[in-house]
Amino acid sequence: MSQAANSSPSNPARRVAFLGLGVMGYPMAGHLAKAGLDVTVYNRTAAKAAQWTAEYGGRAAPTPREAAKDAELVLACVGNDDDLRGVTLGPDGAFAGMARGAVFVDHTTASAGVARELAQAATGLGLHFVDAPVSGGQSGAQNGKLTIMCGGEYASFERAAPTLAHYAAAVTLIGPAGAGQLAKMVNQICIAGLVQGLSEAINFGERSGLDMALVLDVIGKGAAASWQMDNRGKTMIAGEFDFGFAVDWMRKDLGFCLDEAKRNGASLPVTALVDQFYGDVQRLGGSRLDTSSLIWRLRQLDGGGA
Ligand SMILES: NC(=O)c1ccc[n+]([C@@H]2O[C@H](COP(=O)([O-])OP(=O)(O)OC[C@H]3O[C@@H](n4cnc5c(N)ncnc54)[C@H](OP(=O)(O)O)[C@@H]3O)[C@@H](O)[C@H]2O)c1
After folding, report:
1. Which end is more exposed in the chain, N or C (fewer Cβ atoms within 10 Å of the end residue's Cβ)?
2. If you measure from the C-alpha of residue 82 to the centroid of ligand 1, how many angstroms do you get, rounded to a whole number?
3. pLDDT for 200-242, tens place per residue?
């Protein structure tokens, strides 16, 4: 471990590292470079890191540990719990390279359990950890308008927030370690039932011979309005399901919700059912379709084609 990092709310981090340049991480890290920060990136598939530095400048490192060395803030957006352990722990993990006092911010949608586990490991090494899953999808990442839900100590959050603001519309501390992930689960529970309801409504209207684009324009101004209706309604009607957040990811997220519900005793009957519907979409070959593909499942079942 090297010298203590010294970012603060009035002295935001200048040297940052970003681990995981996927659909979300690539543009998020890009916003940091465009804001003039000194960014070092790491990506498991090195070609993507090379592409990123060709586009934005900065440096690419061969391991998370190398990327994290000298960074005041280390940010990550990888796939799941194990991927996250892979980039943080072990001899080549970021924690082994971070300076004492530096802050690790995780944007992966992961379990609350892994957030608590890594927060504890970080504390033991004199580091700070903030779980900070995001909502807003690929377009939110590209436009810099994500909603970020954070869990951790207030002092760590305060140090990270000005940096996260470069790609966020809102950055909020919800509670202690794991609370960001729990808030993201609430978000996904809201979405699951809503998308199934919207799918049933559009499929019903179509089978009744209604002009559903017209119907959505009308009811979208009333009590049935939703972000999903505004942003996905017309594309669902058109049978377009290529909007970034894949069914495979949604099943991972709903798995976290259902696991957590076993612990906290909440009943999630609709969420559990919709999770099975997404399982049907996977079996029908739609793993990489986006989450609005629940209507695609209904059309297949009802014999209506794509
Ligand atoms: N896409 C969305 O709309 C959206 C919205 C909200 C939240 N999220 C969440 O954000 C996270 C990332 O999503 P995404 O869409 O950006 O995924 P993605 O495009 O599949 O990118 C995943 C990234 O993680 C890296 N990675 C995966 N496993 C790894 C491992 N074991 N070690 C090191 N790196 C690893 C991948 O590296 P490679 O390039 O080598 O594969 C890639 O950079 C997920 O937790 C997802 O649930 C996504």
Report:
1. C
2. 12
3. 999 999 999 999 999 999 999 999 999 999 999 999 999 999 9
Count the neighbouring beta carbons within 10 Å of the beta carbon of residue 54: 9
Indicate which residue of 34, 69, 145, 184 is catalytic. 184
Residue among 21, 26, 41, 44 to mutate when testing ligand 1 (max atoms within 8 A of CB):
44
Tokens 């070092």 belong to residue: 40
CA-to-CA separations, 88 to 28, 77, 105, 108, 226, in angstroms, rounded: 19, 12, 11, 12, 37
231 in Cβ contact with 194 (< 8 Å): no
- The pLDDT assigned to 303 comes to 78
Nearest-angstrom CA–CA distance, 24 and 167: 11
Distance 123 CA to ligand 1 centre (A): 25
- Residue of the nearest CA to atom 21 in ligand 1? 22
Residues 6+ apart with CB under 8 A from 3: 99, 100
281 lines ligand 1 (CB under 6 A): no
